[in-house]
Write a structure and sequence with these properties.
Layout: H1 4-16, H2 20-30, E1 32-33, E2 49-57, E3 60-69, E4 77-83, H3 100-108, E5 112-116, H4 135-143, H5 145-153, E6 159-169, H6 171-179, E7 187-193, H7 206-218, E8 225-230, H8 238-250, E9 255-260, H9 277-290, H10 326-335, E10 342-346, E11 352-356, H11 361-370, E12 378-382, E13 385-386, H12 409-412, E14 415-417
Parallel strand pairs: 4-5, 4-6, 6-7, 7-8, 8-9, 11-14
Antiparallel strand pairs: 1-2, 2-3, 3-5, 10-11, 10-12, 12-13
């Protein structure tokens, strides 16, 4: 576990040490492309790339799997650093976050967007650490990784390290507000999308601990911040958000709370939805302008046309979907009730998967489907378009085919929201 006292001293040294230039040079020289996996999808319209950024966390040298989006040109561009939440389960198993909806809007406004996976998450090295119910310490431990990210940016010609906005969702929002206490040079504003950390089970009074954490952060931060919390957030409702905001501002913090109404089934996923843009973007544009950062669109981005309709069938024609047995066909019917963005994938083995919302439901549906299939999966439908076309002599399994290991509906099916939306 990271020692909080050591963190404070280390963070101070990172900012003020005379060897900062050497650290920046090291970051620029040794950041390497992340190893590709079979499901890495890069968005060419946003110049997306993935690098491993060197950092020091808890006194250890680590590498942070970092996604970078940049506008056309050489820069230097203002920068948005976007911090991810924590999904249920092992942090190591968590997928790389991309925040495509947010990233697209900021790239449209001329920003470079940087999304670091913190220590122990996804392919970042090191071990995840927390302090249990001590939310103040948890935020600081996670925020430590941002120093390596910012030092890396200072060595990049495309990044304007004097014009930086730091934002985060869920645990990433708590991380962002903890980082704000460092008053790091060049960071002009903070955006908190449903920030916090929820403890499941046990005797931890995590709500009170969160209020205490925000009071502590507010007493030590001079950076303006903008907060978003929804009425039906399954983690941090309006009552808790109001308590955290009051504690933060009474301690001296500068924060504006946008308490919006219900959003779909759970407002905690608002930031990952295209429908959420109408809630957060107008307020964010005003906030950016107020802190002297670019706020208006300056770049025209092409629409996402990766998956054009093939004309194979109407999207609501259940009988046209190949390979599915009875339960899979029932799940396709359920898929049709899901909100956009959404995707449904199938395999000749009878495997299937659907995903909705999130960074890239198409990639998520394919990845989930192939976990349970001995053959490649293919997208059948994306949003309201059928994108599948039959190959010559493609095998078709009858609905009455006997189930075999790895092929039964219960073993192959997975209906879920795309990873990176719910967090913890």
């Amino acid at each position: 576990m990271t020692d909080l006292h050591a963190f404070k001293a280390g963070a101070k040294n990172w900012i003020r040490s005379a060897s900062l230039a050497a650290v920046v040079a090291m970051a620029a020289a040794f950041a390497t492309p992340a190893q590709a996996s079979s499901h890495v999808v890069l968005d060419a319209t946003l110049n997306e790339r993935v690098v491993m950024v060197p950092a020091i966390s808890g006194g250890q040298r680590i590498q942070l799997e970092t996604t970078i989006f940049t506008p056309p040109g050489n820069g230097p561009f203002p920068v948005l650093i976007m911090n991810h939440g924590k999904a249920m389960g092992s942090p190591r198993a968590q997928n790389r976050d991309r925040f495509l909806v947010v990233s697209r809007e900021f790239v449209r406004r001329g920003y470079a967007v940087v999304v670091p996976m913190r220590k122990g998450f996804s392919k970042s090295t090191g071990d995840y650490a927390d302090r249990g119910c001590n939310m103040t310490a948890n935020g600081h431990i996670q925020a430590e990784d941002l120093f390596g990210t910012l030092n890396y940016l200072r060595g990049q010609s495309w990044a304007d390290a004097n014009r930086v906005v730091v934002a985060g969702q869920s645990y990433g929002g708590l991380t962002t507000m903890a980082f704000g206490t460092r008053n790091y040079p060049g960071v002009r504003g903070l955006i908190n999308f449903a920030g916090g950390l929820k403890v499941h089970g046990g005797t931890c009074r995590w709500q009170d601990s969160l209020v205490q954490a925000f009071h502590s952060y507010g007493a030590r931060s001079s950076v303006p911040s903008l907060w978003f919390y929804g009425e039906n957030d399954g983690h941090f409702d309006h009552e808790l958000a109001g308590r955290m905001h009051t504690a933060y501002t009474r301690a001296g913090g500068n924060a504006r709370l946008v308490a919006f109404g219900p959003f779909k089934s759970d407002a905690h996923s608002m930031i990952g939805s295209r429908d959420g843009v109408r809630i957060w973007l107008p307020e964010t544009e005003r906030f950016l302008a107020s802190i002297g950062m670019p706020s208006a669109p300056v770049i025209a981005l092409a629409d996402d046309n990766r998956f054009p309709a093939t004309g194979y069938a109407e999207v609501d024609n259940l009988e046209a979907v190949p390979f599915l047995r009875d339960h899979g066909r029932e799940q396709y019917r359920a898929f049709l009730s899901k909100t956009f963005p959404r995707a449904f994938a199938v395999s000749p083995t009878g495997a299937w998967s659907w995903a909705e919302e999130g960074d890239d439901p198409a990639a998520q549906a394919l990845a989930n489907c192939e976990k349970n299939s001995s053959q490649a999966c293919h997208l059948y439908a994306v949003d309201n378009r059928v994108v599948w076309a039959p190959e010559p002599a493609a095998p078709v399994l009858a609905d009455t085919a006997p189930a075999t290991p790895g092929q039964s509906a219960t073993q192959t099916g997975s209906g879920q929201q795309a990873d990176g939306v719910t967090g913890r």
